[in-house]
Amino acid sequence: MDPVSQRFIAERIPGARLHVFPASIAGSHFPALENPGEFNAVVEDFLS
Question: What is the pLDDT of residues 33-47, one digit of tens each?
């Protein structure tokens, strides 16, 4: 899936960061459930 719409939105939100997981890491709509370690690392990086 091409995240064009997500890029469009992120570009318009000050301070937003877009992270797109490759399908090999999390290929569904639920990356937090599919690969919690990778997901939590992205969230931790954003919050720090």
Answer: 999 999 999 999 999
